[in-house]
Design brief:
alpha/beta, nine-stranded mixed β-sheet, 16 helices, 35 strands, about 25% helix, elongated, disordered C terminus
Length: about 725
């Protein structure tokens, strides 16, 4: 015998109440004076025995009543053969949740032969097996998981309609979140057998976080027994699939009559049927921008191999551009297209803050003559602009001579978080008290430990080494790359930076200490150089590599490019600060489908923050303010879902831990639909109703026995 509400057994202490009252009542003795008791002594002895027997019977009845009521609330269950015999004549109602995996890997296949269609058929069979009084609901796993309907229902037709309307999404799945949601929906329901039917292809990225995030203790009611889980595994057959994993746009310098470069990375994940002995595939990839085909390429790769393809497109008109890179059709459609957005402004706004020597170099480099036509609008400003919040979005370049007080560093951090770009050089203005400031630890994941070298003394110096030439800032060609790899630039004074595990170091000095770091906060980016442009600190500004470094840094840090490369994952909410909007205007959002709705915006000191909670549909989301486009967002599927490597059913069941009863089901055998209960036993029967009926009978007996005693006592008086 087991108890479904074992916590109620603590109520057994109430059994002691009738016993205590009985003992207390026995001590209440009243003395009556008689002239002689010789005539009533014998009668009194007989009557005392009868009263004691009645009192003991009342004590027993009252104790049993309390005991039975406590046991009834604890919901005892008889299992095994006795439970099967008792349960054969009394059917317990069932409440269940069907977790239907609708992540896009479930759509792998052709001609409708997909794991999702097979799982939906099995879910329909579970719904058809509902009996009178049963209730159920359906939970779809595509992030974020959704319950249909919100609470369990006994309407079979409504559940069947929900299943027929369910489709494979273009999102990855969240099995852990779906299981938590199912347990929450079933918690608190009493007097029913509960079951969770989990139908999935066991794709690894959907399941990998289950062991850490799902446990029996997460049940809303700790007193409840764990709900059994019936696991139905499904698997795709032979699948031919490749995915577009990323699109990198606007990384080069705009050069007169030269095209802009778009780089798309792809992976050939699954080949054609093994019987064809074909391991290489030729696929066509095309670039579409503003609804027009701009370029196409054919690529060939081995199954399981990754690669990249470059498109060259001339962009000679400023404006907003949206588009996608697309593969030709295969057996998984959701990962064949990757969206991007790109803004080509009339000019890149740059504000240079610092001393005259440094700002001179910055202005000369960003306003070149000849073929370079990167439109950069350079303004100079004093360090006082850092004493308050910055509202003009663009790129802020701070040289090392600027005094970096805690207030100014806080202003810089807010600027980056709100979407701005910052390039900061360290020099004389950095006070040792600011070495561990939150700006460095929060944005770059580092702290400054010491200053080394003597500015102006050129007898000793450090050179730059270990440059990440794959990073957009250092993607140089020809002699510019050689000027860094040969250590041409000299750094006479610099700072020692302690980079944490999360820090991204993109260049180091020859002794291994960080020279250039990339940081991120909110929707903005920042670059930190451990030395200054001042010629007493380094001769970086006099070297040929300085020109492409500054141009690429401006392009990489500018908010328009940040939006383009900072794509959002489908199913994840978008939270975007909008510092250039002072108050919440009449904003509305246009979804990729063309549907529009008023956007949720929070007003604050530094503008507004826009929230887009529903991003289940990949594509381009457009934020409008009346007739003007404020911003666009590219939302794409998480291509980890494209990897069809799966857990085995036994591995997936083991991820629930030992506290959950998981039963592996074989959909091919089409067994009877289980109706909850403890598996491995012949049956089970809840006896709480019988206990309550028995307790009511004892209450009536107690009432009669105590009443009869009172009646006779009254007649004796």
């Amino acid at each position: 015998m087991t108890f479904l509400n074992a916590l109620m057994l603590f109520g057994l202490v109430a059994v002691a109440v009738p016993i205590i009252l009985h003992l207390f009542h026995r001590q209440r003795v009243s003395t009556v004076d008689f002239s002689s008791v010789i005539f009533i002594r014998d009668h009194h002895m007989q009557r005392s025995r009868a009263l004691r027997l009645r009192e003991l019977l009342l004590l027993l009845l009252r104790t049993l009543i309390v005991l039975l009521l406590v046991l009834a609330f604890a919901r005892p269950v008889i299992e095994g053969l006795a439970g099967a015999l008792l349960g054969s004549s009394v059917e317990q109602r069932s409440v269940f949740a069907i977790i239907l995996d609708n992540s896009y890997s479930m759509g792998a296949g052709r001609y409708g032969d997909t794991p999702f269609n097979a799982a939906r058929t099995e879910a329909e069979r579970i719904v058809d097996a509902m009996q009178q009084g049963d209730e159920g609901l359906i939970i779809l796993t595509a992030a974020p998981p959704e319950a249909l309907p919100p609470v369990p229902t006994d309407r079979t037709a409504a559940l069947a309609a929900r299943l027929s309307e369910a489709e494979v999404s273009e999102n990855s799945g969240d099995i852990a979140g779906a299981v938590r949601l199912a347990r929450r929906k079933l918690s608190g329901i009493v007097s029913a057998n509960k079951s969770i039917f989990l139908l999935s292809d066991l794709q690894r990225s959907d399941w990998e976080n289950l062991a850490e995030s799902v446990s029996v203790s997460e049940s809303a009611e700790p007193s409840e027994s764990p709900v059994p889980i019936y696991l139905y595994p499904f698997e795709a057959g032979s699948v031919d699939n490749a995915s577009i994993d990323d699109v990198i746009v606007s990384e080069g310098l705009l050069i007169r009559n030269q095209p802009e470069r778009f780089v798309a990375t792809f992976t050939f994940r699954n080949g054609v049927a093994a019987s064809t002995n074909q391991t290489r595939r030729i696929r066509e990839i095309r670039l579409v921008m503003n609804g027009m085909n701009r370029d196409s390429r054919q690529v060939t790769a081995e199954t399981g191999a990754a690669g990249s393809v470059q498109f060259n497109v001339v962009i000679d008109t400023p404006g907003r551009y949206t588009g996608y890179v697309e593969l030709d059709e295969d057996d998984v459609a959701a990962d064949n297209r990757r969206y991007f957005t790109l803004e080509v402004p009339d000019a890149f706004g740059v504000t240079a803050v610092g001393q005259s020597e440094s700002t001179y170099f910055i202005e000369q480099v960003l306003r070149p003559s000849g073929g370079l036509v990167t439109p950069v609008d350079v303004r100079t400003a004093s360090a006082d602009v850092l004493n308050s919040d910055l509202y003009d979005r663009g790129v802020l370049i701070v040289d090392g001579g600027v005094e970096l007080t805690p207030a100014r560093l806080s202003s810089l951090e807010r600027y980056v978080s709100s979407g701005g770009g910052v390039l900061i050089f360290l020099g004389e203005g950095l006070d040792p008290a600011a070495y561990g400031n939150d700006f460095f630890t929060g944005v770059f994941g580092c702290s400054i430990t010491a200053r080394r070298g003597t500015p102006g003394s050129k007898t000793s110096f450090h050179r730059m080494d270990q440059v990440d030439f794959e990073h957009p800032v250092f993607r140089f060609d020809g002699r510019h790359a050689e000027s860094l790899t040969t250590g041409e630039a000299r750094f006479y004074a610099s700072y020692t930076v302690d980079a944490g595990l999360e820090a991204r170091v993109i260049a180091r000095f020859m002794d291994g200490t960080p020279a250039v770091l990339e940081g991120r906060s909110g929707s903005g980016r920042a670059l930190l150089v451990a030395s200054d442009l001042n010629t007493g600190w380094s001769d970086l500004a006099l070297r040929s590599a300085f020109v492409p470094f500054m141009h690429r840094s401006v392009r990489y840090l500018h908010p328009s490019v940040t939006v383009a490369e900072g794509g959002h994952l489908a199913g994840k909410p978008i939270v975007r600060p909008m510092t250039d909007l002072r108050a919440a205007p009449d904003l509305f959002l246009e979804y990729p489908s063309g549907r529009t709705e008023t956007v949720n915006a929070r007003a604050g000191r530094h503008g507004i923050t826009v929230e887009v909670p529903d991003t289940r549909q990949p594509g381009v989301y457009t934020l409008w303010d009346g007739d003007a486009v404020v911003q666009v967002f590219a939302v794409n599927p998480d291509t980890r879902e494209s990897d069809l490597v799966r857990f085995t059913p036994a591995e997936a069941a083991g991820m629930f831990g030992t506290g959950t009863n998981v039963v592996l089901m074989d959909p091919a055998d089409a067994p009877d639909v289980p109706r909850g209960g403890t598996f491995g036993a012949a049956g089970r029967y809840e006896i709480w109703k019988s206990l309550i009926v028995f307790a009511m009978a004892l209450i009536l007996a107690e009432y009669w026995l105590s009443g009869s005693r009172s009646g006779r006592s009254g007649r004796a008086r």
